[in-house]
Amino acid sequence: MQAKETLFADLVQGRAQQFQVPLYQRTYSWAEKHLKQLWSDILEQADLLGRAEEASTHFLGSVVLAPSPQNEATFPRWLVVDGQQRLTTLSLALAAIRDHVAGTAPDEAQRIDEQYLINKWKNGNDHLRLLPTQADRPRFAAHIRGPLTDQAASSSVATAYAFFRKKLVEADDPAAPQDVFRIEQAITSRLTLVAVTAERGDNVHRIFESLNNTGLKLSQADLLRNYLFMRLGSRGEHIYEAYWLPLQDSLSNDELEQLMWLQLVLDGDDRVRRQDLYTAQQRRFEETRIGEAEIEEYIKELHRRGAHFRRLLHPEEEPDPAVRAALRRLDAWQAAVTYPALMPLFDRRERGELSSYEVARAMAYIESFLVRRMICRVPTNNLNRIFQAVPGQLPLDVPVTEGLHRLLSSENRFWPDDAELRDKIRKAPFYQYGRPQQRKLVLQRLEESYEHPEPVDFAAAQLTVEHVMPQSPGDEWLRELSADAAEDETAEELHARFQHTLGNLTLTAVNSELSNHPFERKQDLLRGSHLEMNRRIAATERWGVREILARADELADRAIDLWPAPLRGVGRAERSRDWQLAHQVLAALPHGTWTSYGDLAAFLGSGAQAVGNHLANTPGVAFAYRVLTSEGKVSDGFRWAAPQDAGSDDIRARLAADGVRFTTTGAADPAQRLTADDLAALLAGTDDDESGDEDTARSGTTETPGEETRAERFFRQLAADDSPETVAAVRALFTHWEGLGGWIGHGAGRVTTSAFLMLGEAGGPGRGIWPVTLYPGTGRGGTAEVVFQYLAAREPFTNRALRAELLVRLNTLDGVDIPEGKLELRPNIRLSLLEKDRNCELFAETLAWFRDRWEERSTS
Fold it and tell me: What confidence category does residue 698 fall into, taking pLDDT thresholds of 50, 70 and 90?
C-alpha cells in the first residue's frame, strides 16, 4: 500500500485511465450543504491564486484506490474504494465550467473535457474518465457527454451540476470578481487529496474502515489551548487561573474559538478561515520562535480583548448609551460579519485614542453600509472578505473613524449613494430581500426618525410588516389601480411592481384587522395607531401608485438622513448588479419552468421592456429563452443574442427539451410559470425565518390568559373565507395527523395564523419537521403550502428522490398538478380540494408516508 499527497489534476489527467465506483458503493448523495462548503473552499483558493506570498492549499480528503479486475496495462482501471463523492462532485464542477465557457471559449471547453472528463479515443463506458455506480451512470454520463436528457433532470447528480452552473453565474459578480479559469485552476491544482493506492493483496476494506473511524473531535479552541499550555512552564498554572479561566468562564467554547480567530485577523491574517485557526496560529508561533513570555502575552491580550468581544455579544454591558444603541441595532441585524471592523474601535477607545462619540459615529457608517446595501439589493456574498480586510487596510494618515468611512467608500465595496438609495426605495421589491428582522428594523428606524413625543416601545410591541395595498387585492383595489395604469400595463402588472416596495409597507400590531380590506377600512384602523407613519398613511385620501411613490420619496429623505452616505470620489464600479441579479435567478430556474418579462421585471424592480432589451442584447445569459410573455408565448421581439445560438430558431423545441409543457393553444403551461415571488424564493434559499421553528405553539396555546387561542383564530379566519365543508375537512385532517403521532403548531401571525403539521419537537433535539403549512384565505380561499424548499435542508428529505416522491403522491389528488420545476419552491394546494372524499384519503395516505420516512431516518 502506498499513500501520497496529490492534486486532482495529477490524479486524473495524463494517459487514458478510468476510475470505477464499485457497484456496492452507495449512490451519489452530496446535498446542498456539502456543495456550499466545497464551493466556499474553491472560491477561497481561487482568490489566493496569484498572490506573491506562498499560500497553503486546501486539504479535501482521501481517495482509496485498488486495482480493478478489469485492469489493463495500456488502460489502467482503478476501483474507488473511498472518495467517490469527492471525485464525482469535482468532475461535475468541471463539466459545469466547461459548459459555462463553451459559448465564449470553445477551445478551452474542449481542453477541460479532454484533460479531466473523458478518454478521447475510447468508446462506450470507457469514454468516461470516472465511471459511477450503475444507478448514477446514465445521469452522470448525460452531463459529461451532453446534451442533457429528461432522464438527467431529476437526481442528486443533476442537482449538483445545476448548483455549479448557478454559482458560476454568481461568480461573475463584479463585487467579488472570480475568473472562471482561476476557479478551474483552484479545483485542479489547489485542492489536495491523499491518494491511498492498494496492491492486489491488500485488504482495502480495512483501510476504508480505519479512514472513516470517527470519535469525539476536539474543537479548534481546545487544540489551541492545549498547545499553549503545553509550552508554558512553571507559570502555566498562574496564567491559567488569572487569565484563561476567567476568559473561558465569560465565553462559551464557540465564542472563545471565534475570539481566537478574530485575534488572528486583527494581527493581520485577513485570509484565515475559522476552521484553520489552530493550524494558522500554531504556524505563526513556530515561525516566530516564540517562548514562554510571548505566549503569556498572547493569553493576556486575548483576555483583554475578551472584554471587548463580550460587548458585541451582550450590548447591555456597554455603558455609553449611543454605543449601546448602535450595538443593539447591529445585534438585531445579526451582523456578526462586522466583528473584525468593530473590535479595533473598542481597542482604540480603551487606549484613549477614540471617544465613545467617535465609536458611535464609526458604527453608524458600518450600519449604513449594511442597510443601504440591503435596500439596494447588493449581494452579501463578499461581506466576510470586506470586513476581515478592515483591520489591515485602515488608512494610517487619518483618524480611525474617518479612515473607516473612506475604506468602506472605496471602489468595489458597493456602498450605495443617495441617488441609488432613493431609486431603489421607489422601485425595488424591498419585502423580498434581506431577512425579515432586517426589514422590520429598517421600518422601525424610519418610524423613530419622526421623533414622536410618545414613542412606541418596540421591544414590547408585537409589530409585523404590513402591506397597505394587500398582496391579494380584491376587485376594489384593482379598480383603483386601473386608474393609475398606462395603456400597455394592466392593474395586475402594476400591483406586482409596487406591492413589495418600501412605499407600500408599514409596521402594525393589527394585521388581522387590516388584512386585504379596502383602503377606507384600513384608514380607520391606521388613524388609531401609535405609529406616526401609520397616521400619515391614514391622512391620505386614496392609496394607489402615486401615493406609494410619494411616500417612498418621503421615506427616502429620512433614510438619507438616518444612514450616512459614502464619500464621493473614492471610486465606484459599474452599476451592473441589477442585471447580475437577473442572470443569477435565470441560472437558478429549475428544469421544467419558465417566467415572464413582467415577473422578472417585478422581481428586479425594473420594467418589462428594459428586461426584454437587456436579454435581447446580452450574449450568454443562461435560459434567456425561458422568459416569455405573460400569455406563455415567445415575444415577437425575441432574438438569440449569442451568434452560436442563431441556428436554434425553434425556441419551442428548446423549451420542450427543458421540460416546459405546452397547452393546446401553443402557450407554455401556466402551472410551470414562476412568479416574481417564486423567483425571489429561488435566491432566498432555505431560510427558516418564517418557518415557525422558534414561534410555533401547540394548538390551544394563548398569548395571554383568556385570549383567543391561535387554533381558534386559525379556524375563525379559515371559516371567513372558505365553505363549512372545507373547514370540516381541515378539522378532520388535523385529527388524522394527531392520530399519526404528529401535532398541530400555529404561528403567531395575526394577519393569517398559519398551521403547521408537525413531527418531533420544535427547537428540541433534531428539531421539528413539517410537510405542509396551512394558511387561511385572504379573499381567495385557504391554501396548503408544500414546503419542498424547506425540506431540502432536513433529513431524510435532503434526498431529492424522496421530495420527488412526495410531489408525485400529491399530484394523485384530483385538481393538483404541481410541476417538477417547483420542487425547489413552496407551491400551494387549494384547501377546498379536500372537500372531495377521495382527495382526503389520498392526502392522508401521503401524510402517513411522510411520517414513516421521517421515523426511518435514524435507522437508515
Answer: low
